[in-house]
C-alpha cells in the first residue's frame, strides 16, 4: 500500500508521494534526499539483530563461566564416585560390604519405585523441619534479648554454660523416658541440638556489632528501639545465619541417631534396618539420600542468607 506522505521538494521543486522499498529504490524513484523518518520500521532491523546477537553472546559467556565453575567444584565428588565404583569391581575392597556405586543407585531406584524411600524420607523431613523451625523460633528471640540486655545475660549465662556443654545424645534417654518413643521425643531432641548454635551465634552477633556504628546511630538521634531495628539486627544477621546453617546440619545428624534408637520409619531407621538385615545396597541408598538431603538443605539456607544479607559488600 502506497504511503500518502508528501516527500520533500526536489531540486526542481516537485513533490512526490513515497512508496515502500529500499533506500536505493527510493533514491531512484524519488530523486532528492531520503531521510530516516521516510523509512519504514523494517529498515532498522540490522541494529535490532546486532543487539540480539550481543545478548546471546553475553548469555553464552555466563553459561560457560557457570559450567566451568561447576566442573571445578564437583571434580572431587566425581573422583570419589569413580573410586567407589572402581575399587569393588577390581577386588581392592570386598564388594559384599562396599558394593559399587552403580549397584547402590539401582537399590535406591528400587526403593523409590516401591514407595519405601518416599515414606522414610517424609517421616525424617517432617521431624527435622519441625525441630529446626521450633529452634529458630525460640533461640533467635532469646539470643537477641540476652545479647542486648546485660541483666538478662548475667542471669542466664551460667545456666546456658551448663547445658551447652551437655551432649544432646546424653539427654536422649531422658527425652524418651519423659516423652515416650513417639514423635515428641524425636522433635524435642532435634530442637535441643539445633537451639545451641542458633542461640550462641545470635548472642555473639548482637554483642560484636561495631561500636562505631552504634555511636554514629545514637549521634543521629536514634532511639533504643530504632537503633536495635535499624543497626543492631541487620549487623547481626550474618552471624545469626551462620548459626542457623550449623543447626540445619545438626537437624539431620541428630535425627538419624534418634531414629536408630527408637523409630519405625525414617531414613535413620531405614539405614539401621537394612544393615541389620544385611541389605547392604539399601543401607548405602539411605546414606546417599541423607547426604543429598543435607547438601540441598545447606544450599537452601545459603540462598536465604544471601537474600537477607544483600547489603553486605563481601
Automatic annotation (TrEMBL):
- Topology with regard to the membrane? Multi-pass membrane protein
Which cellular compartments is it found in? Cell membrane
**Name the UniProt record assigns to this protein:** NitT/TauT family transport system permease protein
Reading the lineage from the top rank, the first entry is Bacteria
State whether keyword Hydrolase applies: no
Q: Which organism is it from?
A: Sphaerisporangium rubeum
Predominant location = membrane
- Keywords associated with the record: Cell membrane, Membrane, Transmembrane, Transmembrane helix, Transport
Say yes or no: keyword Protease present. Answer: no
Stretches for region Disordered: 1-50
Q: Which family does it belong to?
A: Belongs to the binding-protein-dependent transport system permease family.
Family matches, as SUPFAM superfamilies: MetI-like
Q: One Gene Ontology cellular component annotation?
A: plasma membrane
GO terms (BP aspect): transmembrane transport
Query: Which ranges are annotated Acidic residues under compositional bias?
Result: 39-48
> Where, by residue number, does the polypeptide cross the bilayer?
129-150, 162-182, 251-271, 283-304
Name all ABC transmembrane type-1 domain ranges. Answer: 121-305
Amino acid at each position: 500500500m502506497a504511503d500518502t506522505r508528501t516527500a520533500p521538494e526536489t531540486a526542481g521543486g516537485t513533490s512526490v508521494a513515497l512508496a515502500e522499498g529500499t533506500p536505493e529504490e527510493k533514491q531512484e524513484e524519488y530523486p532528492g534526499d531520503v531521510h530516516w523518518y521516510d523509512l519504514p520500521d523494517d529498515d532498522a532491523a540490522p541494529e535490532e539483530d546486532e543487539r540480539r546477537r550481543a545478548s546471546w553472546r553475553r548469555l553464552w559467556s555466563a553459561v560457560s563461566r557457570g559450567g566451568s565453575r561447576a566442573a571445578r567444584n564437583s571434580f572431587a565428588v566425581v573422583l570419589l564416585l569413580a573410586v567407589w565404583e572402581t575399587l569393588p569391581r577390581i577386588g581392592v575392597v570386598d564388594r559384599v560390604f562396599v558394593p559399587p556405586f552403580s549397584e547402590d543407585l539401582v537399590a535406591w531406584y528400587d526403593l523409590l519405585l516401591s514407595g519405601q524411600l518416599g515414606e522414610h524420607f517424609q517421616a525424617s523431613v517432617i521431624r527435622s523441619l519441625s525441630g529446626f523451625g521450633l529452634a529458630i523460633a525460640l533461640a533467635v528471640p532469646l539470643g537477641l534479648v540476652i545479647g542486648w540486655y546485660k541483666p538478662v545475660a548475667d542471669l542466664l549465662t551460667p545456666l546456658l554454660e551448663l547445658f551447652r556443654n551437655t551432649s544432646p545424645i546424653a539427654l536422649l534417654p531422658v527425652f524418651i523416658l519423659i516423652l515416650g518413643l513417639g514423635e515428641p521425643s524425636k522433635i524435642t531432641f532435634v530442637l535441643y541440638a539445633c537451639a545451641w548454635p542458633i542461640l550462641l551465634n545470635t548472642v555473639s552477633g548482637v554483642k560484636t556489632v561495631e561500636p562505631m556504628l552504634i555511636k554514629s546511630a545514637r549521634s543521629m538521634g536514634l532511639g533504643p528501639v530504632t537503633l536495635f531495628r535499624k543497626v543492631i539486627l541487620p549487623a547481626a544477621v550474618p552471624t545469626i545465619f551462620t548459626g542457623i546453617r550449623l543447626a540445619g546440619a545438626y537437624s539431620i545428624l541428630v535425627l538419624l541417631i534418634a531414629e536408630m534408637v527408637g523409630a519405625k520409619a525414617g531414613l535413620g531407621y531405614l539405614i539401621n534396618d537394612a544393615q541389620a538385615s544385611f541389605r547392604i545396597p539399601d543401607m548405602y541408598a539411605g546414606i546417599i539420600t541423607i547426604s543429598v538431603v543435607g547438601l540441598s538443605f545447606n544450599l537452601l539456607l545459603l540462598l536465604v542468607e544471601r537474600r537477607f544479607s544483600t547489603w553486605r559488600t563481601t
